[in-house]
Amino acid sequence: MPGNAQLSIDHLVREAEECRSLGLGGVVLFGIPEEKDEMASGAYAADGIVQRAVRALKREVPDLLVITDVCNCEYTSHGHCGHIKKDDVTGYVDNDVTLAWLAKSAVSHAAAGADVVAPSDMMDGRVAAIRKALDEAGYPATPILSYAAKYASVFYGPFREAAESAPQFGDRRNYQMDPANAREAMREIALDIEEGADMILVKPAMPYLDIIRDARQKFDLPMGAYQVSGEFSMIVAAAQNGWLDLDRTILETLTGIRRAGADFVFTYFAKQAARLLA
Fold first, then answer.
1. How many Cβ atoms from other residues are within 10 Å of residue 143's Cβ?
2. If DSSP codes are grouped into helix, strand and coil, which group holds residue 83?
3. pLDDT tens for each residue of 3-43
4. Which domain range does residue 143 map to?
5. Are 239 and 245 in contact (CB under 8 A)?
6. Catalytic residue chosen out of the listed positions 36, 58, 104, 203
7. Does residue 4 lie within any of the structural domains?
8. Catalytic annotation present for 271
9. If we measure between CA atoms, which residue out of 135, 67, 76 comes closest to residue 101?
10. Can 104 be counted among the known catalytic residues?
11. CA 103 from centre of chain
12. Has this prediction a pTM greater than 0.85?
């Protein structure tokens, strides 16, 4: 992913200052701990990497919106998004145990000063669990941006390499969505809204423009789309080979996502797009 790298907190602050100067609406934080374990303990530690990063950003760049990704895959030694329960044959993600981890992570992020928490795990009932935990901990005003329609996509590959979060066994298709199933996305979004989501997100973006459009027509909440690492990398690769004009491709793809109905877009092209639109 050219132009993207893991950042220490001091470099993150400088990056955030540049984002603010370009007029970007905010940043989304993903954390990579020094050590990973089976319990994803770094995800909800009060002094975890994201928690410290949030405090630094709110201290140094207080007017920049800070959204935190709430998941476990970057923190587990096995790379899955939740607690692995083992039976006589294989292992599977224990949904209910994972909900407790997610709730603790969201509260720790809010306590650090996060403006928005964004669960991306696709566990059943996670929005309700997080909303209840935030309210009980004294953060009833902290919004939840739910990755409500997150597909089991091949386009996450470059991010998983960069974040060192690829599953060590199996895959995530038993809790992320089937790319062939559009109707399930509408059910998942409706459930998350019923549980208390304040905003929703579709991920990936370009292969799922129909999902963005369907969701826009059916639901009235603020909705975003995530132009993920694979989308970014294939565009950059094509431009490096002289097959596409990079600047025009950035703007055309983002325009397409916006035209489909997204109110906001998560993209690795954010700084470049801001400069092109200035």
1. 18
2. strand
3. 888 999 999 999 999 999 999 999 999 998 888 887 878 88
4. 9-277
5. yes
6. 203
7. no
8. no
9. 76
10. no
11. 16
12. yes
